[in-house]
Structure formats: C-alpha cells, structure tokens
Amino acid sequence: MPATVSIIAASDREEARAFADWIEAGHPGSPPSPAIHVRRTLAAAIDSTLLAPTATPEEIARLCADAREAGFAACCVSPIHVPQAVRELTGSRVRVATVIGFPSGAHDPWVKAYEASRAVEQGAKELDMVLALGLLRSGRDEALAAEISGVVRAARGRPVKAILETAALNEEEKIRAVKICREAGASYVKTSTGFGPGGATIADVSLLRREAGDSVGVKASGGIRTAALALQMIAAGADRIGTSAGRAILSEIQDDPRPDSP
C-alpha cells in the first residue's frame, strides 16, 4: 500500500479553476473567492524545488527560508543537500524531499534503492524517483515494477513520487506507467523532471488523475511559473506542484481588497 497522501478536495479544485479563469480574464471585478483561501490551498500543494547542479548552500538556505515563510508542502533538493535542508527546516511543517535516479532514471535498481535508503537515513521525508523509461518503453513491466517496489521498501513508509517524464511517452505508455506505479506502491505519479523534453501539461495531468484512482496523488512539475497555470494544474487533478518559482507564484495572489474580506 502507498504511504498516505493528501488528495485535494473537489471543491478546492473548482475554486482553483474559477480563480485561474479570473486571473486570465484580467481580474474583472471582485475575485470569485477570497484570495487567502486560494493562496493557502496553493501554498500547501507546492514542492519548492532547487535541483540545479550548481546550487550552493546559500541558495538552499534561501529556498528553505522562503518555504518556511510561505508554508509550502516541501522543499525538493538534490541528495547532497538533504542534510542541510533537514537542519534548515527543523521545527517547521515543511517536508524535505529529494530525488532518486535523477534526472535520467537509467540507474541500476540497486543504486536507486540504496540512494533512497541513504536519503531516509539523512532525514528526507519524501522521495521523487525517476522511472527507468527504457524498461517501460520496451514492455518490461515486471522489471519496472520491481525497481519501483525496491525504492518503496527502501523509503520505509515515506511517500515515493514516481516521475514518468510524460513528454517522452505516448498515451498507452503513460496509462501503463500509472498502473505499474500504483500497483508497485508509489504514493504519487509525477509528470516531469524539468530536465526532459517537456514539462507538465493540463492534458497529461488530467490523464494521470483519471488513471491514478482515489488513493494515489498526482504531481505536476516542469515549466509551472505562474499562478494561473499552477491553479489550472490543481483544477485538472494535481495534488502537488513542483516549481522553482513558488514565491513568485504566491506573490501573484494578493489579498482580497474588499473591506469585508476575512
């Protein structure tokens, strides 16, 4: 069974959809719902991400400070930065996430499992794992399931987000990948690494949501840099948003200017 995940309620998705439409229409009149509600939903869904190989400890510290202030779901950093992120976020509700087999996924399954185990030992609370796309595309479903299961076991109850790199797959491969991930115990299916041939799309998020069922979350990642797009992803079925622009996205959602707003 996958670790417990937080699936966004249908009412919050509809609120996100209406607010995104309002933003894209140029903010006509009053917002469709209080901005504070929308901002809270969005902040709680964001995995604030810094995975550049050139990232410095100073940049990781700023990432974590911003996440604490904004109340993001998680900070996602490269494995080498996990110990620092754990120190920076001690005492906060922000979870430390890291990546496994990143960014290609073409790693030995034993290496991925070891990387996951080591990350857990260092304090990571969530693991974003890149699938071995060659196994998927060649129809070696059992080998792919075994790889995912190995990382899930190594995660010791921490959520594993399986990265499909959807821009590299056809529809049949995406559907099959979600089924394999779900049955192998992944907690989330995720669109992209941000280093592949494309990022998240509304169509792919909708497909993943449809195929994932009620117990597996969906993470949209790759190219999400505006509040309107982030909210559209939530409306389409995303439960998490992976982005390096979290602070800028939240800054677009200003407090409701009406005098009677909460």
Describe the structure.
An 8-stranded parallel β-barrel has the order 1-2-3-4-5-6-7-8, surrounded by 7 helices. It is globular, with a radius of gyration of 18 Å. The model is unreliable at 258-262 (pLDDT under 50). It has 262 residues and is an alpha/beta fold. It contains 11 helices and 8 strands. Helix 9 (202-212) links the parallel strand 6 and strand 7 (217-221).
Main attributes of the structure:
single chain; 262 residues; alpha/beta; eight-stranded parallel beta barrel; 11 helices; disordered C terminus
SSE inventory with pairings:
Blueprint: H1 10-24, H2 35-43, E1 46-50, H3 57-70, E2 74-77, H4 82-89, E3 95-100, H5 109-121, E4 126-130, H6 133-137, H7 141-155, E5 160-163, H8 171-184, E6 188-190, H9 202-212, E7 217-221, H10 227-236, E8 240-243, H11 246-251
Parallel strand pairs: 1-2, 1-8, 2-3, 3-4, 4-5, 5-6, 6-7, 7-8
Helix pairs in contact: 1-2, 1-10, 3-4, 5-7, 7-8, 8-9
Summary, kept brief:
Helices cover 46% and strands 14% of the residues. It has 262 residues and is α/β, with parallel strands linked by helices. Helix 1 packs across helix 2 (35-43), helix 3 runs parallel beside helix 4 and helix 8 (171-184) crosses helix 9 (202-212).
The number of distinct helices, counting runs of at least 4 residues, comes to 11
Structural class computed from helices and strand pairing: alpha/beta
List low-pLDDT spans.
258-262
Mean pLDDT: 95
**What's the end-to-end separation, in Å?**
40 Å
The residue fraction in helices comes out at 40-55%
Strand order of the largest sheet: 1-2-3-4-5-6-7-8
Rg from C-alpha positions? 18 Å
Topology as H/E string?
Answer: HHEHEHEHEHHEHEHEHEH
Q: Per the principal axes of the C-alpha atoms, what is the gross shape?
A: globular
Beta-strand content bin: 5-15%
Main beta sheet strand tally, sense and closure: 8 strands, parallel, barrel
Strand tally, please?
8
